[in-house]
Specification:
It is built from 15 helices and 19 strands. It is α/β, with parallel strands linked by helices. The chain folds into two domains: 166 residues, Rossmann fold (3-Layer(aba) Sandwich); 289 residues, Dihydrodipicolinate Reductase, domain 2 (2-Layer Sandwich). Helix 5 runs parallel beside helix 6.
């Protein structure tokens, strides 16, 4: 970033490049990727000469593809309450094309290569490329190998450059993750591979490091000396829906814990990096994952609660039970809820428990980290008739209503000494006049700039799997006998409350 005279910073504009979206006929491309690229282009954060190629197996004309994208982009702008810039869309659409092809057909990739080169030559720019794999996981390796075979991966080259963005899941376990990393490494260098998790693009997640390392009042308190425990909640109010086939082979541990929750845990617990370079930041995240104390093999006897929602209602809408969902096995043992406690065996966090919970069909959609500070000594105001007083809590809300809240004690005005907890609150919308941009906007821009700070490195993926895989291995998804059921619209099974109450604590949402 370039400093300006008033000490603000401007976002760098990447070099002209071609974005190739594989799986361009899918939901992710239509609902998130293309609207995000268009928004960046409208905001002047992408070069005027950027080109977008949608690559998919579906038969459709270029005009049909552009019309579909126009509808999706319009919906995205409407959801943000912003007027759609029709004039800008016409200019942008002229830079969009559709390429039909298979994911393992050499001739189709050779045709793609020729199209990229001809478009770049016509615009008198280098044929730089960002390849986005918005496809099912079984297409990752064939696509990567075909890009390598036709010369588009440009392994090790810098001009023109190529980068590849890969959606999760990154394997199903440690072995498959290692195999995938090895296969990617045969075709692309590690600095060309951008493993994306949209949680890392969320403003509040990015703000965790600023909160900790940009404010002197927090970092010296950030250890076992002052913190009692930490809670991380990733709650969804929706059911599995049409994702039954995928979800029944994944479950909450694979779908949320191995990626989203491990990222949040790493950022809240990491040591200060020596610099803000991508590798310096990611080095510290990996250290956190390596410090996780392994959970003993017998899952049910060692504090891992697994749940599954039953039939019920949320907001007056009837919900079918998980095992009645289409493409879900009638006696499935796949968890839709999980809660457990972990420890980090390092100097900063010795003895501090981290409580994690995530699930579907819960009371409301919410992702939040809460840091609970130790109670004050049992003297003065922490004794009757004033106490005991609740703990101070720093709550970081990732979604929705993104913001940060600090809970503390204050005297109620009046002649009587009465103490109540109050909340000092910051939220993005009221402070900055608008909600944060979509996470994909930031991540797509960073990929085009070659900044991998918010993307996952291969050793980070494998470190997360080393912790999560043994838990999955000893929690059979073939039988529902070890699953605790819960009603939709609640906060999960009673066993999750018992887990934290056994330590004299309660689940918290600010």
């Amino acid at each position: 970033m370039n400093a300006t005279s008033d000490n603000l910073h401007q976002v760098a504009i990447p070099e002209p490049f071609t974005l190739v979206v594989f799986g361009a006929s899918g939901d992710l491309a239509h609902r998130k990727l293309i609207p995000s690229v268009f928004k960046l282009w409208c905001d002047g954060l992408l070069p005027e000469q950027v080109a977008v190629i949608g690559y998919a197996r579906s038969e459709k004309s270029q005009q049909q593809f552009i019309d579909e994208l126009r509808e999706s982009a319009g919906n995205a702008f409407a959801d943000q309450g912003v007027d759609f810039p029709q004039n800008k869309w016409k200019k942008f659409a002229a830079r969009v094309s559709y390429h039909q092809g298979g994911y393992n057909i050499a001739a189709d990739f050779e045709s793609l290569r020729d199209s990229i080169k001809s478009q770049a030559a016509a615009a008198s720019v280098a044929a730089n490329c960002v390849f986005y794999l918005a496809t099912p996981p079984d297409a990752f390796v064939p696509i990567v190998q075909q890009l390598y075979a036709c010369g588009l991966s440009r392994r090790g080259e810098t001009n023109p450059w190529s980068r590849i963005v890969i959606e999760k899941p990154f394997g199903r376990d440690l072995q498959t993750a290692q195999t995938l990393n090895a296969q990617l490494g045969e075709c692309f260098s590690e600095n060309q591979i951008f493993r994306i998790d949209h949680y890392l693009g969320k403003e509040t997640v990015q703000n965790i490091m600023v909160l900790r390392f940009g404010n002197s009042i927090f970092e010296h308190l950030w250890s076992h000396d002052n913190i009692d425990h930490v809670q991380i909640t990733v709650a969804e109010s929706l059911d599995v829906g049409r994702r039954g086939k995928y979800y029944d082979n994944a479950g909450a541990l694979r779908d949320i814990v191995q990626n989203h929750m491990m990222h949040l845990l790493s950022l809240i617990a990491m040591e200060p990096p020596v610099t803000l370079t991508p590798d310096a930041v990611r080095n510290e995240k990996v250290k956190v994952l390596k410090a996780l104390r392994p959970i003993p093999p017998v899952c049910a006897k060692n504090g891992v609660v697994r749940g599954q929602y039953t039939a019920g209602t949320i907001g007056g809408v009837k919900i079918s039970g998980y095992r009645e969902t289409e493409n879900v096995r009638p006696k499935s043992g796949t968890e839709t809820f999980v809660a457990f406690k972990v420890y980090l065996d390092n100097w900063r966090w010795a003895g501090v428990p981290f409580y994690l919970r995530t699930g579907k069909c819960l009371q409301r959609r919410c992702t939040e980290i809460s840091v609970h500070f130790k109670r004050i000594p049992d003297v003065l105001f922490n004794l009757p008739p004033y106490g005991p007083l609740p703990q101070n809590v720093l709550s970081i809300r990732v979604q929705p209503d993104e913001g940060i809240t600090l809970e503390f004690q204050a005297k109620v005005p009046g002649a009587v000494m009465k103490i109540e907890p109050l909340k000092m609150k910051f939220d993005y919308k009221s402070s900055f006049g608008a909600s944060p941009p979509d996470a994909y906007e930031r991540l797509l821009l960073d990929a085009a700039l070659g900044d991998a700070t918010l993307f996952t490195r291969s050793d980070e993926v494998e470190a997360a799997w080393r912790f999560v895989a043994p838990v999955i291995e000893h929690c059979s998804q073939d039988c529902c006998s070890m699953i605790s059921e819960y009603q939709p619209g609640t906060w999960g099974p009673a066993a999750a409350d018992e887990l934290i109450q056994a330590d004299g604590r309660q689940w918290y949402l600010g």
